[in-house]
Amino acid sequence: MLEPYKRPGIDDRPDLDKALSPEDKAAVARLAIKNRRRPPEASADQPEAQAVRLAAASTATAVAAAASVDAPAPDMSSAYLDMRDPMVASNGEKPDAKTVSRLNWGFFAASMLIGAPWIALNAVALPNAVARLFHYDTAVLQVTINPVTGRPFPVATELAMPLAVLVIVGVVAAALFTPLVSALSDRTRTPFGRRTPWMVTGGLLCALFTLILGQDTSIVVMCFFWALMQFAYAMLSAPLASAISERVPDKFRPRIERWHGIGVMLAQALGVLVGAFGVMFDSYSPFIYAAVLFAISGIASVLILPREPSSTEQPRQQFNGSQVLDQLRPPTGAPAFARVFAARACMMTGVGLTSVFLWYLVRFWVYGKAVQLTSAPLTIPAGFLICAMAIATLIGAALASWSAAPISEAIEARGIRTSVVVAAACLTYAVGLGLAWGLGVWSTGTARENGMILFALISGFAFGIYDALGLELVMDALPDPRNAGHDLGVYALANSAGLGLAAIIGALLVNAFAHSFGYYLLFPAGIVMVLLAGIVTLLGAEKIEEISE
């Protein structure tokens, strides 16, 4: 009987489990290479994560994300720079078409659910709660005439300083807690993934702290829980930004980031509407609505998104507090970066002078001296005007998102410097401020309302163009592409710095002229800061060109 043919080196190989002795197996094991799993990259150092976080910081950067202007963050770990598959996410997942669609709509819905209640708190609910502490809730204001000028005294000027203190506490707490939460979530090892537990818990904590903030307490208690609120909100926002860079492959990231930016834009308008309609009923209603949205946001976001893979197998990483503080350290020897940072801080200061005190401007400047002919509280017309301004701002931002890319292409074809257009956007924003100020001071009747609505429309467009095109200047000013993630995180602090400066400058101006101008001075101060931002942008762009030459 013929033996079956045995392929040399294939069929005649010995069974090593039987052929080798235990001593031989131990010797082979000592020669084996231990394949230690590399720890994932820290989210604080990921350029894409920082770009998403920047897009969620304000309406303008959301416009930049939705405008499709070609100014991507320099990501040295991109799959397009090596042999990795751009259809595979950085966490190793390769999503199919259905999963990509869930990622797209999941991050879009999450940005709205998380952003809307936050805007409702900042824009209407908290300023009105501070006013309630000083008995300015829905009561009819008693108009007092200045015997020297014959004009009414400014109303509710004593509210500016307490609100400014609350804003500054929040700014400082957010600057510290956001990198802390990012570092802790990077090291989370659970069967539900790294980001999911933080988002669910953060949403519930935000709901709890929101209900506490709405109680009749004191400004000290409000500051304490507002600082805790920053930590809870960081548990929602920071893991969401990190999840986009980890779970979305490079191939689909521009589209999903664009829809995330659109969601942030819609959240801005929706949040103002929630706060304004809520305050029409009573001062506690917007806190209830915001708390419900917060409680839903974390749970709904993780349910809409595909299930996050387990993180129990990732290597343990030791936590070091210096890693958190390092995220606040600016790059050294980078004058171009310092100038774009200063320009951004000046712009955000000019914007914040009206946005921080917007509810007081509408409630006590536009309607503060109105004669109440019915029993309805004055918060009702103020709420409707705030809603109209939110819709006008959304329209202006949408126009900026639609026109930013064609404008960028047109100025490139004509050889116009981007800095000139960015400075022109600053000038346009100043025109909007001047229009609202002029109609409010020198006109009567409905002129103030119309001026505020026109200001919202112009500012939404100008601010959107400023950020969509200004993003190109930021990317050109980054000192080292290898540290782009860290530097973009530092640049995002310009938003916080500008907001804090706006609170300080605005409170000082209102209190210094409490018996003459009051909230009037917020508009000219904003004009000065916005124009200063345009000047710094032009000077900084010239320095960047000199360095590049």
Automatic annotation (TrEMBL):
<dbReference type="InterPro" id="IPR011701">
    <property type="entry name" value="MFS"/>
</dbReference>
<feature type="transmembrane region" description="Helical">
    <location>
        <begin position="341"/>
        <end position="362"/>
    </location>
</feature>
<feature type="transmembrane region" description="Helical">
    <location>
        <begin position="416"/>
        <end position="439"/>
    </location>
</feature>
<keyword id="KW-1133">Transmembrane helix</keyword>
<keyword id="KW-0472">Membrane</keyword>
<feature type="transmembrane region" description="Helical">
    <location>
        <begin position="382"/>
        <end position="404"/>
    </location>
</feature>
<dbReference type="Pfam" id="PF07690">
    <property type="entry name" value="MFS_1"/>
</dbReference>
<feature type="transmembrane region" description="Helical">
    <location>
        <begin position="262"/>
        <end position="281"/>
    </location>
</feature>
<feature type="transmembrane region" description="Helical">
    <location>
        <begin position="519"/>
        <end position="541"/>
    </location>
</feature>
<dbReference type="GO" id="GO:0022857">
    <property type="term" value="F:transmembrane transporter activity"/>
</dbReference>
<dbReference type="InterPro" id="IPR036259">
    <property type="entry name" value="MFS_trans_sf"/>
</dbReference>
<feature type="region of interest" description="Disordered">
    <location>
        <begin position="1"/>
        <end position="21"/>
    </location>
</feature>
<feature type="transmembrane region" description="Helical">
    <location>
        <begin position="103"/>
        <end position="126"/>
    </location>
</feature>
<feature type="domain" description="Major facilitator superfamily (MFS) profile">
    <location>
        <begin position="123"/>
        <end position="545"/>
    </location>
</feature>
<feature type="transmembrane region" description="Helical">
    <location>
        <begin position="490"/>
        <end position="513"/>
    </location>
</feature>
<feature type="transmembrane region" description="Helical">
    <location>
        <begin position="451"/>
        <end position="469"/>
    </location>
</feature>
<protein>
    <submittedName>
        <fullName>MFS transporter</fullName>
    </submittedName>
</protein>
<keyword id="KW-0812">Transmembrane</keyword>
<feature type="transmembrane region" description="Helical">
    <location>
        <begin position="287"/>
        <end position="306"/>
    </location>
</feature>
<feature type="transmembrane region" description="Helical">
    <location>
        <begin position="159"/>
        <end position="184"/>
    </location>
</feature>
<dbReference type="GO" id="GO:0005886">
    <property type="term" value="C:plasma membrane"/>
</dbReference>
<dbReference type="InterPro" id="IPR020846">
    <property type="entry name" value="MFS_dom"/>
</dbReference>
